[in-house]
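We store chain and fold; example below:
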Amino acid sequence: MKRTLLLMLLFCTAVMLCGSFNEDLITELNKAETKVQLSACIQSALPRAQETEDHRFLQDIWLRIDPEACCDYYEQLLEKHPNDPKYQYLALRIEDDDLRLESARQMIAEHPDYFGGYQIMADNMYYLLSNAYTADDYTTKDYAADKALLKQGLQKFPADPILNLAQFRSFWFDGDLKNAELSLLKVKDDEVLLFNWQDVMAFLKEADRPELLASLQRSLQVDWSCITPFSMLTKEAIQEIDEQTNAEHSDRFYLTCLGELGETALMENFLNSHPEYQNKTEMQMRLVYTYLELDQADNALNRLQRLVKGRVLDYLDLQNDEELTVLHEDKRWDTLLAAAEQNWEADASLRRQKMLKERLDKPSPDWELNDAAGNKVSLADLRGQVVILDFWATWCGPCRGVMPVIDNWIKTSMPEGVKVFSVNVYEDDPQDAIDYMNEKSYAMTLLLEADEVFSQYGGEAIPQIYVIDKQGKVAFDHLGFSKDLEFRLQTWAEALVAE
C-alpha cells in the first residue's frame, strides 16, 4: 500500500510547486502504511482545505484511496451550499464522465462569471477531440456550441490554462496549426502541459515545429524536491535538490523530447553548447540512442568513439549496454571496444586510489546469526579475516542483479583470507531465501533473519554491502548495483588482506 501511495503522490505532484497545504498532506501520507491510516490523513486535512486548489489537490489523492467516501463528502458539501458555484464545481469535477459535459454547460448558464463550469466543459471538449470521436459522439452542432462557450470563457479568463489548452486542441482539430500554436504557448501551467505532453509532442511532429519545444521547456518550472517522496530520500539527498539539479532534470527532459522528435541536430547543438554535460554519460547517450532509433549506425559509432576518447564512456558501459548490441556486427565495434578496454586498464590505478580513499574505519556491531543449517555464525569468530556482508532479499530485483556478480568474483578472483556472506533481511519466510540460494548454487554463505543487525549498521535500503577489516571495523560500504562491482570487491579485498 505504501509503495502504491508513493507512486500516486509522484503522479499527483509531478509538476506543481509545493504549497503549504500540499506539502503537509504529502508528508502525512508518506508516513501512512495502511488504508485506515491513509483515510485518517485525509480526514485530518479536510478542515485545513480552504482554497479551491486545496480541495482539488485533496480530491485527486482521495479518489485513489477511497473514491466512494470522496464523492459522498463533496455531495454533502453541495447539499449544504446548493447555490455556491465553488461547491457545484468541486462536486462536478468528480462526477461521472457521461454527465459532466451537460452539467458543465448548465453551470455556465447559471454562473457565467465563475471559471469552474468553463474549465470542466473545456476539459471534456479536449477529451472528445483528442480521442477522435465521430460526429455521432460529438455532433457538429454541439461542437460549435461548445466552441462559442469556450470563446466566452476565454474572454472572461484569458489566462486560464485549461481553456487555452482546449482552444489549442480545437484549432488543431480544425487544421489551423498557426492558431493552435499560439494557443499552446498561452498554456502557462506546468501540470496541465505535462499531463497532456503526449498530445503536445504529436502536435509538434505534425506541425514540424521542433524549435517550439525550447520555448515550452523553458516555461516549465518543475520543483523536483516536490515530486520525489521525501520518505524515499535521505536528508543529505533532499539538501542536494537545488536549482542546478532542477535545471539538469529539465534539460534531460528536453533532450528526451528532442529524441522523440528525431531532432538529432538540435540535440547535438544543445549538448555542444552545454559544457557541464560533456562528461555526463546519461545525457550524451541520449543522442546515441536516438541515432540508433533512426537507423543511423555511423553517426552513433562516431559519437561513441568521441565519448570513449574523452573517457566519458568506459569499457563496462560499452560491454554491458544492451541497446548497443545492434552495433556488434559492425566492423568498427571491435576497434571501439578495444580502445575502451585499453583506457579502462590504463585508468585502473587511479580508480583503485579513489576507491581506497573512501575508507570509513567505523566500528562494526557485534552480531551472531544463523546460517541455513542452523549453525551460529558470529563476527567475533571471524576476527583476523576480511568479511564481506551483502544484505539482500529474494523480492529485491537489484539484489538479484548483485548476487551473481559476487558469486562470479568469489569463484574466479577472490583472494584467500576473505569470507563472503549473503545476509537475508525483510523476508516473510526464511525458507524462501534458503530455496533461492540452493537453486542458484551461489558460493556465498547464507545468514538469516538479520533485520536487527542491518538496522544496527544503519542500513536503510538493499542491496547494501559492508566490508569489514581484520580488526572488525567497517572499512567500506556500497549501496545498490554498480557496473564496476567486481573491480570494487577486488580492490577492497586485496587492500585489506594485505594489512
